[in-house]
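Project outcomes to date are best conveyed with an example. Our students and postdoctoral researchers have been running inverse folding experiments weekly, and each run begins with a structure described purely in tokens. The record below, which covers 123 residues, was selected by the lab manager from last quarter's runs and is presented without edits.
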């Protein structure tokens, strides 16, 4: 069964950090490009970051550049999103996604999706 399961969300104060994890099962993650998306309350799903299939390119939404870092551990079949200097506008449900395409994009055209992890940035 193909599955992506996120964890690591929670409530954090502005300026704080969180690391989201996304564990894949049922398929080898190293054959997939990966994306992270955020959905704020009442808004659509927005691409935050992605990493190509062979790990040589990463892309970020302008508002998270320098604060967020996407990575993967193929041995653990896990994707990470390190989020530093969090801001209230980073609040939302974060989804990881995987697609067999070589290149990654910040549009939601991915084949597999996780169930989402809530991140709330508030004082």
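After processing, the design step wrote out the following sequence:
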């Amino acid at each position: 069964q193909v599955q992506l399961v996120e964890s690591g969300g929670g409530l954090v104060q502005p300026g704080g950090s969180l690391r989201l994890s996304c564990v894949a099962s049922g398929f080898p993650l190293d054959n997939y490009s990966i994306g992270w998306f955020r959905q704020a309350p009442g808004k659509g799903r927005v691409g935050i970051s992605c990493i190509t299939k062979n790990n040589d390119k990463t892309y970020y939404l302008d508002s998270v550049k320098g604060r967020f870092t996407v990575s993967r551990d193929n041995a653990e079949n896990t994707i990470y999103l390190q989020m530093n200097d969090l801001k209230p506008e980073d609040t939302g449900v974060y989804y990881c996604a995987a697609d067999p395409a070589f290149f990654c994009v910040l549009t939601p055209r991915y084949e597999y999706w996780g169930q989402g992890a809530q991140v709330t940035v508030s004082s």
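The CA atoms of residues 57 and 84 lie 20 Å apart. The first strand starts at residue 3 and ends at 7. The training component of this project remains on track.
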